[in-house]
Structures are given as structure tokens and as C-alpha cells.
Fold this protein.
Amino acid sequence: MLSDIELYQSQKQEFDVWRAEQDTKHGVPVLPFKQFSAAVLTAAHWPHSVVVKPQLPYDLKQCTSAYEEYSKLKFPHKALSWSFVAGTMILVYNKGKVNEIVCTTLQGLVLLLFNSTDALTLQDICTKLGMTEEHGRRILMSLTGSGQQSILEKSAEGERFRLYPEFASQYRRLTLPQPAHHEEAQTSLR
């Protein structure tokens, strides 16, 4: 485990150098995001988690494809698989005041859907991201929680979700709670 962490730090630097070389070579940025990193972990050394393979937005797909290209050049005999359950994403939310929202990758993917639409149902979210209703419920529960960390609002009928209009945080950086466990999510969103 410790060697994975040390290896990640050196690989991150090497990927940044490779990315800069590719940007220079092509004359345009390879990745749409200023910052992107992937931690490569040896599967045998870490606990197994639930496998969720969401449909990624175009920009994020470009990032994962670029990292896969780098990985194939650097480690041609190693297989790379993505674990979106274990990842972290930092989103910049700008509505009068700029907030950085630290969330899981799946929470971030759900929030990114609201860049292009005002309201979505659970079915819409699950269909667009290619995930099960169970995973969708868990993620939505963590985004519609109580208090200042409620980013999404559930309609009175409980069928549609939209960005919480009064969302505001006094903190520049806000960390969202992890999605609930299986049993909690099913009872809260019904």
C-alpha cells in the first residue's frame, strides 16, 4: 500500500510532464481540465469495492483516455481499470460566490448533469450515467441531505431534483458527505 502511494506521486509528476509534451506537440491542450490525476493502485493490495461503470461526460472521457494512452506507453504489460467509487472530484461552483465542492467522483458526475438542465428525475440521472437505481438513490441522498450541504433539492412530489436555489456556503471549500449505505438510501428516497 505504501509503495502504491509513493509510486502515485512519481507517476503524477511523469504524467504532468507527458501531458505538457503532448500539448506542445499538438499545439493545443490534450485535456480539457487544468488539473487531472489518477492514482494507480495495485488491486491485490487494496480492499475490493463495488464496481460502477458510469457513462462519463465527454471532457472526463478525454481525460481518462489520455491517461490510458500514457499508461500504455509507460506500462505496456499492465491492465488499467477505473474505480469511480473510490475517486474524488473537486468542482468549482460559481453563483455569486465561488465555492470548491469536494465530492466523490459519482457525486460529481451527477452534479455535472445539472450544467445542461434545470431538473432531472432519478430515472433520468441513472439513464444518463448508466448506473443502477440503487446507486442513483445513494448518491442523490447524499446530495439532498439536510443543512448547508444540500446542493440538490427534491421536488414536493419527490420525483424531480434540481440545484438548490438557496445553496450558499460560508466556506470557500466544502466537503460533501459520502453516499449512504445501501439500506439507508432505499428508505430515505422513497
About this structure: The two ends are 40 Å apart (CA to CA). Residues 183-190 have pLDDT under 50 and may be disordered.
